[in-house]
Amino acid sequence: MAKLVDPDQLNQETEVVIVEGAKTIQLLVAGNLSDDAPGRDSGVTGKCLYSFLKEEWLADADLNMFRFPIKMIYEASFQLINGWTFADQQTMELLRDAGFQDIANTDEYACVITLGNMDDSAVDQAYFDQIAGADDNTTVLPFHLTGEVNENILTDDGTNDYTGYLKVFLREEQKLFAEYNLLDEQGLSALKYEAYRLPVSNGADLKCVDDDTVISGGTGSITGVDYTTLGIDYITGAKYVTGASIISDNAGGVVIGDVIQDAASPARWYRCTGAGDIDASDNADLSAMGGAGTATFEVYPGERQIGSGFYAFNRIVDCTDDAIQAADKQEIHAWLQYQLRQNVDINDDTGGDGFGTVYGKIAPVFTSFVGDQMWGEPGVYFDDSHADDNNAITYQDIGVGAYTAGGVEGVDYGLDSEFLPALTNSLNNPFYASFSLVFSSNLVGETTADTLFKVYFTNDDSGDDSGADYDTAAALIVKDKDQSDITDTISTTTYTYQYDFTGNVQRGTGSDDTPVPITVVFQGLEDSEWNEASFTIQKSTGQSFACNTNDELNYSNPT
User: Fold this and answer.
1) How far is CA 186 from CA 179, 190, 319, 527, in A?
2) Which residues of the chain have pLDDT under 50?
3) Structural domain range at position 73
4) pLDDT, tens digit, for every residue of 91-120?
5) Strand 452-457 to strand 238-242: parallel, antiparallel, or no bridges (unpaired)?
6) Which of 171, 199, 227 corresponds to the end of one domain?
7) How many CA atoms lie within 13 A of 35 on its CB side?
8) Which residues are 298's β-sheet partners?
9) Is 14 within a domain?
10) Burial of residue 378, with CB atoms counted within 10 A of its CB: 0-12 exposed, 13-18 middle, 19 or more buried
11) Which of 327, 346, 66 is nearest to 219 (CA)?
């Protein structure tokens, strides 16, 4: 049945029961009145009930002897007056399109109306939270019905005042998440007893590659990562400002937990472990504290290097399992979405930082997608994600602020009440071209100590062109993204590396961001011949280079 808007569809003793002595009004699921999901398509509007009661008070001599029960403020808000109340919870659940105040019981209700469509109204269940922060789940409650919401919730009972916060969530398995912080989004100072409309809708999440059954105890469908061993680490901290601004506006004073960026080159991040002050000499390198300051610091545990710079994060996701299998970006996303639907603590505290409890069901999200590019939400970093995803992930750091006397944490700098950064920057890794060297079985079967491979630049023509070519004494060994020489013994078929395509200038000025000609030299002793193979590293991922050689027939070392 549809939502009732016409008072002619209401009848005393069928849909509405009025008890004069007790001064109660009761709505019944009967006759024309239903309480079917979704709420937007059932129940009765406050305006309709008010209009019906006016007609009854006019026509019914018994009712006319009593003061009228409702003061309609406007169509989305009314008061129960003159000692009248609603008879039961069902009555309040059947009201649509209007919030109300029950003066006799000192209760206030706000009507939440969601805009937009849900993927499956019979299944999708929105819920709400009335206390800010993910460390308290005592007010996390589902709405009365599934599907699109039109429902009253208690915001003030005279003892507990929840008018200062309301966040609505819609988080379903393998579907896009939606959430809405009503007061923040609509610039409200407090909730009133009226109706509020907010956008909450969902649809299929095409990036959520695995379902709950797999994620809760299985392996990823792309890489085979063991989902049960991934982890989340929340990092404590406050302020996130430059040391120079602390010196300028706070006389250098810092307290335990303050996170400061120093003036070194490149600038680094440190967290105060002992309150005190710093001066300009200290700020030049907070690890050394070379001035007269008395504060003590540690390297901030959420600091991560991206390219040549260092950036601050406070939600670290461990993306590699115990078998050192890295998760693909879609597996990471699916696992995190699963965590965010659990009403348990999702902070694994892997670094022992002691941040505290974080209930997944009300925690801020970690990821989103723009096309095939995964974005970490502000403050999120992915440790040891899959090499092929290095350039498919965009990060958003905790942006460095400038401390000012009277500045507001979470607005001017630092973190807000949900520990999200007030300032942020979009960051991408340098382009790391990934490639694998795949060796023939005779090399793999050799005694490991008798094998060797090295990767050289074939030439330096695109850089200095100084003659640093393979097959000369000036030959250069190629370094990976971590500046380690790409060389090893051979004990397995495949070796995978990442090359800093946009940053490596081993070949000289101008060689960065250009194709990379390489020569791989490889050999065994007794089972495989010496050989070489030439390839070109392109600005791409997932490249594979076959390194095959003949069986050794002539090597001999009798002694």
Assistant:
1) 14, 11, 36, 73
2) none
3) 7-199
4) 999 999 999 999 999 999 999 999 999 999
5) unpaired
6) 199
7) 16
8) 271
9) yes
10) buried
11) 327
